[in-house]
Write a structure and sequence with these properties.
This protein is α/β, with parallel strands linked by helices and 299 residues long. It has 10 helices and 10 strands. The strands form 4 sheets. It has a 4-stranded parallel beta sheet, sandwiched between helices. A two-stranded parallel sheet has the order 1-2. Strands 6-8 form a two-stranded parallel ribbon.
Length: 299
């Protein structure tokens, strides 16, 4: 979404990836240029960046080593941005989103909230226990570099073209016409982060680069039940949403971790959301529907 937003605003935008087949048509139509380059191929990324660029957004840094490898590139960029995760945060007793017990926060989470300890280079960032600590280590590698790197911590990201769209399971069940969908923890608020809103935040950073950490989340905080209801309304699904006890081994869904991010720091920089998360979630739902076999509205 950042690439599309900037391209439509007149920027020259280049993106890298493993396969052009996964390049969304909307990006091509907006004039975004694709380059088949692995992130680990630093020399080729350097050739692409050339003597410098106004903005570099690193979406796929999972470890300190990966960040250290691109610091020379970041040094030639006016505004480097590193996308991290809310998974770095812990509550007062050390619980976090990838732990055995869900964290408990008594207020929206600020950027100075306690985080997990950073992982060493030998930790697997793609493991449940390693992901959060490796993200912390990646953040520190960027922030300790002395460069004007902004670290962005989104929450539950949503939007079209998502590789693992969280709405997919619910959408597919509704499209199959299942008569009942169970929802446990229906009142839980698991803060959403629309890719379109994150893009708006990234755009305003270009004029004010600085070493900092910013939460990125939607202006509204819908409950899990409200999210499922909104999907049902959009798809025209007329089944029953059954609320089941939180302790039951039923009703699982993607929005069960009670976490809300404080985005005051982003707003102080002039960030204005594109829209409410619940409204923008419709873009992901429509995209998932278009990718689903027989993706017509249920009768």
């Amino acid at each position: 979404m950042t690439a599309v937003r900037l391209a439509k605003a007149g920027w020259t935008v280049d993106v890298t990836g493993r396969s052009s087949a996964r390049m969304p048509a909307e990006l091509v139509q907006a004039g975004v240029r694709f380059h088949q380059i692995e992130r680990s191929d630093i020399s080729r990324v350097q050739e692409l960046v050339g003597p410098g660029a106004d903005l570099l957004v690193d979406l796929v840094a999972y470890s300190a080593a990966e960040v250290r490898a691109v610091l020379p590139l970041m040094a030639s960029v006016a505004c480097p941005v590193l996308v991290s995760s809310r998974a770095v945060y812990t509550d007062a007793v050390g619980r976090h989103v990838n732990g055995d017990e869900p964290p408990e926060f008594d207020a929206p989470i600020r950027e100075d909230t306690r985080t997990l300890p950073p992982a060493g280079d030998d930790v697997n960032p793609f493991s449940r226990d390693g992901y959060g600590p490796c993200k912390v280590a990646a953040e520190l590698a960027a922030l300790d570099s002395g460069l004007p790197v902004t670290v962005i911590r989104p929450s539950k990201v949503h939007g079209p073209w998502a590789r693992n769209a969280r709405t997919k399971g619910i959408v597919e069940r509704m499209l199959r016409g299942e008569p009942t969908i169970e929802v446990a923890d229906p009142n839980t608020v698991d803060h959403l982060s629309a890719a379109a809103n994150a893009a708006a935040l990234i755009e305003i950073l270009v004029a004010q680069p600085a070493p900092r950490v910013l939460n990125a989340a939607d202006p509204d905080t819908p409950s899990a039940l409200r999210i499922v209801q909104a999907i049902a309304t959009q798809l025209g699904w007329n089944g029953e949403i059954e609320r089941v006890p939180a302790t039951a081994d039923r009703g699982d869904h993607p929005w069960r971790t009670p976490m809300t991010l404080d985005t005051s720091a982003a707003h102080e920089l002039g960030y204005t959301p594109v829209g409410k998360g619940l409204d923008l979630l419709a873009d992901e739902v429509a995209w998932v529907q278009s990718q689903t076999t027989g993706g017509t509205n249920p009768g």
